Amino acid sequence: KTNLIVNYLPQNMTQEELKSLFGSIGEIESCKLVRDKITGQSLGYGFVNYVDPKDAEKAINTLNGLRLQTKTIKVSYARPSSASIRDANLYVSGLPKTMTQKELEQLFSQYGRIITSRILVDQVTGVSRGVGFIRFDKRIEAEEAIKGLNGQKPPGATEPITVKFANNPSQKTNQAILSHLYHSPNRRYPAPLAQQAQRFRFPPMTIDGMTSLAGINIPGHAGTGWCIFVYNLAPDADESILWQMFGPFGAVTNVKVIRDFNTNKCKGFGFVTMTNYDEAAMAIASLNGYRLGDRVLQVSFKTNKTHK
């Protein structure tokens, strides 16, 4: 009972500020502000672990509901990680450009308790990209939201939205979901997701071993899919960055960072293969011009002219 989760922090609040705010209550063992792995931006929540459970309880009583800038922070006990809460993060696309984060939360809150939400905006114009993320308290709530909202038109929208689990390439569970979609006799998911699964077009052998998701090209399977060229990567860029950037847009079969033979540093470019043309085009439209650290990426379909 010493570990707290703090939600709805102001975007510009630093880990040091979080620590000094909660350190005023009692001695802190550790404090972590959670940031986006790629952009380094605060995701608006963090964890504070006290030495003494009494201080944790006092912090909840004292600081929960505190207004900081435009936000009202929420302080509660952090739950121990368990299977029921893992992978409850949804990727939502096709949102009306006018929809606010608050409206997004209202739409999804009928399915369960929302831990965090965000809408991606164009970094230059500040306009919504029509894409967002919702993290639920429990995985089962996220599944219900997919059933209820995927392929539906939210109020005021002209197009239906797509709701699916946000990809995290390092997690076996995505692969389990995929195999489940293929092998379960009574597909638990409504048609849109089942149709989506068919768009992954992996030959059956790869679904069982899932080798293609691990970024290994299956002999005879090379050449299928759409190859995307990513230019202006930093020297220390690695494959995981490409997985994280492209994973949310759809099925990625392979990523490759081109390295200098002598130094093993990235030469500034890499390739990503995606199975579905629409998803690849969406990824290019969203990520071309994306600022990664201090570099602006150029992302395009690979043509035969680009680096071999």
From TrEMBL:
Record-linked InterPro entries: ELAD_HU_SF, HuB_RRM2, HuB_RRM3, Hud_Sxl_RNA, Nucleotide-bd_a/b_plait_sf, RBD_domain_sf, RRM_dom
Record keyword RNA-binding present: yes
SUPFAM superfamilies registered for this protein in UniProt: RNA-binding domain, RBD
SMART domains: RRM (SM00360)
Domain RRM: 2-80, 88-168, 226-304
GO CC annotation: ribonucleoprotein complex
One Gene Ontology term of the molecular function aspect: RNA binding
Pfam family, one: RRM_1
Keywords annotated in UniProt: Repeat, RNA-binding
Family from the record: Belongs to the RRM elav family.
Protein name: ELAV-like protein
